[in-house]
């Protein structure tokens, strides 16, 4: 499985390298107020892919933090209930059979 993983990575690298070599045409992006940016198509795609990934990670982090807080609260509740259950069991007087 480890060799398959490395083979997959190598094939993916070669495919992406070929994509980068084939798409090196200059591209001009026009912004507001006459600003523009000229760069290679691959660089522009990489920048926007990275920006999209960063926005996705930031959007997911809010949900992940909420889930971590809820998990911590539930673990704390379980710990408290287990302590109370242990105290309740020790305070009960066992009933002797007659």
Radius of gyration: 29 Å
The shape is elongated
Kindly state the mean pLDDT as a whole number? Answer: 85
Strand content: 5-15%
Order of helical and strand elements: HEEH
Sequence stretches where pLDDT stays below 50 over 5 or more residues: none
DSSP E strands, number: 2
Can you list the strand order of the major beta sheet?
1-2
Structural class by helix and strand composition: mainly alpha
Termini distance?
66 Å
DSSP helical segment count:
2
What level of helicity do the residues show? over 70%
Major beta-sheet overview: 2 strands, antiparallel
Description:
With 98 residues, this protein is mostly helical. Strands 1-2 form a two-stranded antiparallel sheet. Helices cover 73% and strands 10% of the residues. It has helices at 2-22, 41-91, and strands at 26-30, 36-40. The chain has a domain at 26-91.
In short:
The chain is mostly helical and 98 residues long. It has two helices and two strands.
State the main characteristics.
single chain; 98 residues; mainly alpha; two-stranded antiparallel ribbon; 2 strands; 73% helix; 10% strand
List the helices and strands and how they pair.
Elements (H helix, E strand, L loop, with lengths): L1 H21 L3 E5 L5 E5 H51 L7
